Amino acid sequence: MTGIDLSISAAGEPSAAVLGELEGFVVRRQAGRVVLRGHVADQAALMGVLARLRRDGLTIRHVVPVRGRAPSRPARPHRPGPPRAVAEVGLVGLVADLVGPAIEGAEVTQDPATTTVRVRLADPDALFALLDRLEDLALEVREIHVRPPVGGCPEDPVRG
């Protein structure tokens, strides 16, 4: 396996110790968040990096694969998050029949090559519980996005 080139966006500031552990990652700071760009050997290594960031007090916002230069997006103003965010996890393959019954309260959609799972998160730990469950099912995670509900109300629909 050749590994995974990725970009991780997180709210908060990693400690010097964690930055030392993430050798080879390029770190960019932007208005209350940090973007880490680097390479991991496989899904297990990715889970280790995400868990280490979590233990350091960061809140994961996005994890996306990077091929070549990542497209730039205009900066968005920082808004305080609502009490319940929504996680969108892209999975490799057509696995809706497996994921739907395994993840309570999930909205599962498929396109020709991927499956997307949307789940409301009760707290930051809920994201890692979801990722642990997907790992238990031996599914390959393609990307992760954590978004606040539209309008800041936990009962509002998810912005697509």
* Named CATH architecture of the largest domain: 2-Layer Sandwich
Helical run tally:
4
Q: Helical residue percent?
A: 10-25%
SSE series: EHEEHEEHEEHE
For the secondary structure, the number of strands is 8
Mean pLDDT: 82
Distance between the termini: 33 Å
- Proportion of strand residues: 25-35%
Structure description:
This protein is an alpha+beta fold and 160 residues long. It has 2 domains: 4-65, ACT domain (Alpha-Beta Plaits); 85-152, 2-Layer Sandwich (Alpha-Beta Plaits), CATH 3.30.70.980. The protein is built from 4 helices and 8 strands, in the order βαββαββαββαβ. An 8-stranded antiparallel β-sheet has the order 2-3-1-4-8-5-7-6, with helices on one face. Strand 2 and strand 3 (33-40) form a beta hairpin.
Which features characterize this protein?
8 strands, 160 residues, Alpha-Beta Plaits, disordered C terminus, 8-stranded antiparallel beta sheet, single chain, alpha+beta
Fold topology:
Blueprint lengths: L3 E8 L4 H6 L4 E5 L2 E8 L2 H13 L3 E7 L19 E8 L3 H7 L4 E4 L3 E8 L2 H13 L4 E7 L13
Give a summary of the structure in a few sentences.
This protein is of the alpha+beta class and 160 residues long.
